[in-house]
Structures are given as structure tokens and as C-alpha cells.
Amino acid sequence: MLRRLLIVLVPFIIVSVGMRPIGVSMASGVSFTVLKSRGFEQKIGDHWYYCAEGVLTNTGTSNAKDIRIRLRIYVGTSMVGESSERADVPILRPGETSSFGVEVEYLLSNLVDRYELTVQGVETAQDRYRDLVAIDHHLAMYNERQRIFGEVLNTGALTTEYLHMYAIFYDTAGNILSRDYAFTLNYVSGTLGPNSRAPFSFETSYFDPVASYDIWVYAETKAPGWYPALLQATLTNAEIGGPYGNLMVRGTLKNNSNIAVANWETVVILRDQQRRVICFDPDTTYANIGPGQTIQIEQEVPGFYLPPSWATVELVAYSEDVTNYVPTTSTTTHTATATRTATPTQTPTPTPTSTQPLTRTPSPTSTPTHISPTVQVHLPLVLGLPTRTPTPTATPTPTRTPTATPTTRPQDKIAFVSDRDGNEEIYVMNADGSGVTDLTNHPDPDEFPVWSPDGSKIAFKSWRDGTWEIYVMNADGSGQTRLTNNSMEELAISWSPDSNRIVFDCPDGICVMDADGSHQRWLAVGSSPDWSPDGTRIAFVSQTTGNREIYVIDSDGSHQTRLTRSPDYKEDPIWSPDGAKIAFEWLPPSGGYYEIYVMNADGSHQINITNWPQYHDWEPCWSPDSSRIAFSGEGLYVVNADGSNRYKLSDLSHTGVRPDWSPDGTRIVFTGDSGGHRDRDVYVINADGTNQRNLSNNPAADDWPTWRPLGAPGQGEGAVFH
């Protein structure tokens, strides 16, 4: 399919044709050129988007702000979609560049013939902070993916706030592979004090090897001296041990100030032999440390996080009250390097860009750092500590405690969505993959099946009447009935434990109805409802206070109670089967990556159980005994409900695994993606990671698998649709 970039000239706007840059001087002193771009389709949940990302430059003579990129998409000569976004860098000086990304929602896929980009900005005398530098950055293989690791250094006299980093990755021909937003150590507020630095990482393209990359870094600033406190972390011991080869780091943390410090984090930083950051693992603690107080700290880094080439470990600390990241002067040497060194195929060295010598590279706040990943800036050496050398038995190959032997019962069924017949339909199959049956068999899309707790019915979302509505059918596909008439794009459905009622998203909040669609009534302002296992309460998300908070309400609409209180973004509360806890997705207000939190049913004891802010962790699913949670990360993971013993079961998927436990807790069904959204299949795996099998094994897209309940009391079913 031919996609080409058109010339469009409007006041203060310049675009490019193909890959050939064009520049024109404007009387206003502001003009732009799109140097490179790529257009592509992406499906997020049940929505299709056409996306464009690339690099633009200010070809004018004045600083520019409020830079917006408008994307238009065409089918033939007809424009079918339009959207705009701001450039990644807020202020561009003449000759500087910025990355950008913009997307427009589009109903169908594979129809767009071309896209068109236009850029507009406003002349300004404003400038931005110049004293941020990305140092010592390099490509490395980490957890089976290429990543960029490095550090950002504040060389100026001001404290930064809301630090942003973007990167664009290129192949050997200079074509754009992908764009990414970096995670830095100070991810909550992006604060970084004068003469301080923080590690960062980017995740590169999923499929294609990276040859070179550009990095942009900028931040807002505060006045000098804003940072009032300083946390001093001192490493005392680090050793590898346990059945999974985890790294246990111990030390002390001292508050060298005259104020109390709260909401602090300790961060373990791993470096290679060249002193470059190759991994960092933060751990958040919500506790006050008084002025001058020293406490003992302990942090465990899972063995599967440890890159093979790490050589030394550092322990640092920071807080929202502390903007300086100050590395310790203590380092523990990793003695197992010789037996854990990666093979050359695990750490490819990208082709150096001979036309971009290091002397060309200005500060990344003005134009991007575009260098070979082999170029580095050496950091000061730090002292070494005596090492506890692990014995050969201290770091065995990780093994997982076997679960009960899975048994397949005649009533074990799995519902799922597939477009194998040309549009999305709801299918059901036996737990061994046999007996695949199309239940809905309708020319319009039917999606997101949700079993009733007694296993007799399936609620689902359908477009068959021209809007997304909730339908219900019997488990064999008969009796398909429309229940709602509210035209909601995003729907959440949760059955009551007795299978008699359904709570769902409605236009003005959350509503409840009988299972046949009768007696519909409004409950509260909010979304994403989930019915408690005892049937008395409903958890949901509401933004009535300005922040997205989690609430519970009695099922009759009375006694609404707020459980969370913070500016963070919370989503999709899910009750544990025993009703004692609620899991939910959490995103920091400054952006970044989703984490999964667990709290008691009354809102107390909120803990981050995934704690890996370099990739989205979401879609939590409780085990039937409420002891573990399966979730989507860089594949399929399982973690104990208290956050311990996190391990990866499968790395097949990167677009969301949507896990669901079997009713007996011995197996997990999930979506596996081996090469793009058209290659999704339904897989099943034992809960200990053994015996992974492809159940659907079809070239079409098979997705959203869900296990048929056995009708156990208190075992509710719910789903949130995005």
C-alpha cells in the first residue's frame, strides 16, 4: 500500500516530501521542516489508530514555542481523520530539532492510502534550561530486549522539575524504527538538583535491531536551593542467593537535614566493567525519616532482572523532598561475571554513524545526541567492598514450586475472540483446544466475553446495532439478547456473584441491571466497576475530586467510600476472590509506566507489588485462592499478593497477555503474540511455568481468553474493556 507525504504550505508551516527535507524562511522568523517520519497503524484495545512519528527542525531565525503537528489521513482523495499533538520539546531554538508523535483514531484498518503532516508554531523570546546532558548512554540487551541505558546530568545551578526524555531509533539505512519516552530515577516529579545525575533507560523497537538513535532531554526548573534535604545511602553488603539467584542489597539510610523526609526511594544501580549503567531497580517506601535519623534498609533485585554483564552495584536514595541523586562511594564487585557473561549475539554492537562524529554533538537540550552506542563518558571510579562470593549452589537455575497436577474436566471451557471468519466473533473451545465453536456468528464485531459466575451465560460487547452495547447469551450461543442502549465506546461489565445482576459503565457513571436487562438504574459517577465476591459492595473509579480515585459503594447505591487519596492515576480495581483485598493499576501523575498495587478492602496498606517502572505492568488477575496475581508485563508474570516471588512464565506477548486463571488454580490462559497483532493466539500454561501450549493455533488474531467458572460460591467474574 502506497503511503506518501504531501507538500502543504500555510503560514508558519513547512513539511517535507518523502524523506527529502525542505526549508523556507518565513518573515515571522519561524518555520519548520519535517526531516523524517513514518506512518503506521496500531490497535489499542478495540480501537484502531493511525500514528505518525518523526523528527522536525526549526528552520527559522527565532525561537519557537507551542509547536503543534497536525496529522491528516486519507482514503483515496477523501480525508477520513485528523488530529494534532505538541512537539516533544516545548521550545526550539533556530536549527534545533525535536521528536514528535501524533495519532488519530480510525474505525477500520488497512484502508489509509496516505498521511499528511503540517507543523505550526509561535515566535517567542522565551528559552529553556540549557544545562541538562545525557551522558554515558549505550545500547545493551536486557531481559531479551534492546534498551538504551545512561545517565542525565544537571550541570547548571537550577533544580529541574518534570524532566522529560525522548528517543528515536533508526535502522542501518537511517529509517525510523520507533519512538520512546524514557524512565528516569526521579520519575515521580522529575526533580534533579545542580551537579546531580540520575539513570535512565529507553526500550527500543520490539522487532528490529537498532543501529543508531537520537536523544532529547529537557525540564522545567525551580530556583536554586529548592532542595531542602539530603538522603545519604551507604551500601554495607550485597550478595546473590536463594533459589532464583536474587541479589540482596543491604545498607543504611541517613537524613542529613533538619526536616523530616517522607515517600523516599532507594535505588539499586548495576554497572558494567566500563562503569556504565545497565540496570536500575527502585523501591518505594512510605515512611518518615526524622532529621539526623539513620535506618537500616534492605532491597532485593529478582534474579531474572540481573543482566549477565553486570560488574558492580551502587545504592542511592532520593525523595520528593530531595532533588539530589548522590551515588554511594561503595561498590560491590560481581564475582560471577565469568560464568554469566552474555554471548556476542546477546549484546550486538550497532554500526557506528561515521558521518556523526562526537565533536558534532552539542548539548542534548539543543539538538539530539546522535552517536554510536560505543562512545561513552567515563564516570569517576568508586571504591570496592569485600564480596561474599556465592557458592555454585547459591545461584542455581531458577525453579518454581510445582503446582497441583492440572486435570481437564468435561465442563472446562474457554471463551475467546477471533477474527478468523473476517470479523471479530466470540468463540468457545475445550480447555485442550478442541471443539472450537463460533457462538455469535454475526457480520458485525462481537467482543470481550464475560462469563456469569454460574457458567451458564456470557455477557459481551457488540456493534451489531451500530453502537457498542452489552448483550448476553447462553453458554451455547443461543438466546442472544441486547441489554443496553447507551452507545458507550468503553464498557466494563461485572456480574453479581449470584449471576442475577450486572453492573456496567453507562453514560453518566456506573449502572446496575438485572441479568435480562430490566430494572436498570444509576448508582454513582464513575467507571470500571467490579462486584465484590460477597455481593454487598462494588469497587469503581471516580474523578469527582479531580483525581482518579478508587471508591467502594454498597450494591444498593448507599455508603460510598473513598479508598485512595493521591494525584496518581488509578484504574481497574479488582477484588480478590476472598474479598479481603483489591488490586488496581497505578500510573504516576507525570506519566511513565503502569504498576499494580494491592490494598486491603478498606483502603489501608497500599503496596506496589510489581515495582518495575521500565515497562507497563497491568491487567491483574487473582488466583482462585487469592494468594497470587498473574499480570501482563513484558510477557506473562505471576507474583505473590504481597509483592514477593515475582517471576516470568512466558515472554510470548508484548501487546497485552490478558491472563485468566483456571478455576482450580493450576493453569493460566493468556494471549501470546509471536510477531505482530495478526499473530496472536490463545495459549495455556501451568501456573509453575511448565507445559506451555498453543490452543487456538490460527493465523488470524485470537484474543481475550476467559475461563468458564465452575459456579463456586463467591467466585465473581468481571472485565474492563479498553
Radius of gyration, whole Å: 27 Å
* Number of E-state strands: 51
Strand order of the largest sheet: 18-17-20-21-22
Give the helix tally: 1
| Annotated CATH homologous superfamily of the largest domain | TolB, C-terminal domain
- Measured by DSSP, the beta-strand proportion falls in over 45%
Q: Which architecture name of the largest domain does CATH use?
A: 6 Propeller
Structural class: mainly beta
What's the N-to-C terminus distance?
29 Å
Q: What shape does the CA trace take?
A: globular
How many domains would you count in the coordinates?
4
Uncertain regions: pLDDT < 50 for 5+ in a row? Answer: 1-27, 322-404, 712-722
Helix content: under 10%
Mean pLDDT equals 76
User: Largest beta sheet, briefly?
Assistant: 5 strands, mixed
Question: What's this, in brief?
Answer:
This protein is mainly beta and 722 residues long. The chain folds into 4 domains: 32-124, Immunoglobulin-like (Sandwich); 128-226 and 343-376, Immunoglobulin-like (Sandwich), CATH 2.60.40; 231-341, Immunoglobulins (Immunoglobulin-like, Sandwich); 413-720, TolB, C-terminal domain (Neuraminidase, 6 Propeller).
